[in-house]
Task: inverse folding
């Protein structure tokens, strides 16, 4: 598995398994077991997914050494203060049955994120988190964070797929040496990206699926990907993307199908962010 070096020197496996919307304990246990068998070592969850405990159980039962795993979780929007963030982190840690996280992210740029960051910096200084980062942060959010931050985020996890390529944000993150991580890397199975004719042609040429072409395209943009699936075959397929390379021409063709079309939540939707403070 290819690893990327983050701006603090820590390594991250460039491909992992996402577990958003896996709301059944058996589905989660089975997909994590399948993923481990296929070679995944990186897992992405969040407190708001309400499945950290199942992921923790599945990883503990696997017998794989903790240092071989890379575990990410995220602090939810309802925690707006320093103390709350510390408490939320320890709850996640307990559910995940571990004594440190590899990556902890601020889930959305909602109220109090500079304070949350201060708490994450403390946890990072104590060695309880190997790397700290943000999610759904756009340029203005990062600029505001950096007015008080002592530690620069290692990663920004944002919606990214061929119909929402985030070219400007990608270049901005690169200029700051903040790694770009894609959520919804396959367009969340929505918006017909998995039936796109340009991608279908490239897939035929490589004898791969459209999903594999998309994941390969992310990897060649130096993006970290965390595709989610609960199907054995797809889990295996999604990691089988290290034995071929897209040509420069194919990369250019894919860059041209961008529709700048968001599929889910918008970090600029201040009303939604306010409402999310009351959700748990
Ligand atoms: N930070 C954030 O705000 C945020 C937001 C959303 C997601 N995330 C993270 O990012 C991860 C990935 O994003 P996502 O789960 O929203 O979307 P995604 O990975 O882009 O797409 C998942 C969908 O694609 C299907 N799929 C997976 N592999 C496939 C394949 N090879 N062929 C055809 N269909 C396939 C899955 O179906 P099956 O499961 O039925 O196979 C599922 O419906 C999440 O799980 C979560 O960890 C973070």
Result:
């Amino acid at each position: 598995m290819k690893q990327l070096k983050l701006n603090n020197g820590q390594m991250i496996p460039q491909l992992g398994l996402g577990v958003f919307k896996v709301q059944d304990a058996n589905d989660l246990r089975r997909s994590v077991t399948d993923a481990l068998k296929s070679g995944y070592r990186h897992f992405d969850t969040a407190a708001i997914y309400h499945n950290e405990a199942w992921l923790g159980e599945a990883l503990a039962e696997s017998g794989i050494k903790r240092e071989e795993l890379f575990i990410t979780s995220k602090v939810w929007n309802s925690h707006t203060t320093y103390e709350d963030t510390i408490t939320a982190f320890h709850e996640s840690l307990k559910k995940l049955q571990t004594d440190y996280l590899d990556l902890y992210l601020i889930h959305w740029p909602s109220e109090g994120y500079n304070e949350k960051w201060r708490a994450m910096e403390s946890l990072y200084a104590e060695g309880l988190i190997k790397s700290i980062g943000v999610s759904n942060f756009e340029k203005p959010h990062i600029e505001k964070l950096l007015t008080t931050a002592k530690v620069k985020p290692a990663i920004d996890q944002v919606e990214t797929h061929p119909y929402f390529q985030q070219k400007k944000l990608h270049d901005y993150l690169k200029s700051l040496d903040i790694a770009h991580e894609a959520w919804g890397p396959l367009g969340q199975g929505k918006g017909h990206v998995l039936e796109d004719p340009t991608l279908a042609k490239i897939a035929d040429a490589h004898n791969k699926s459209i999903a594999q072409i998309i994941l390969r395209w992310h990897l060649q943009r130096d993006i970290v990907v965390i595709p989610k699936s609960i199907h054995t075959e797809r889990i295996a397929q999604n990691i089988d993307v290290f034995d071929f390379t897209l040509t420069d021409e194919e990369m250019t063709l894919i860059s041209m199908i961008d529709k700048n079309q968001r599929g889910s939540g918008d970090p600029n939707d201040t009303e939604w962010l306010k409402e999310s403070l009351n959700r748990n």
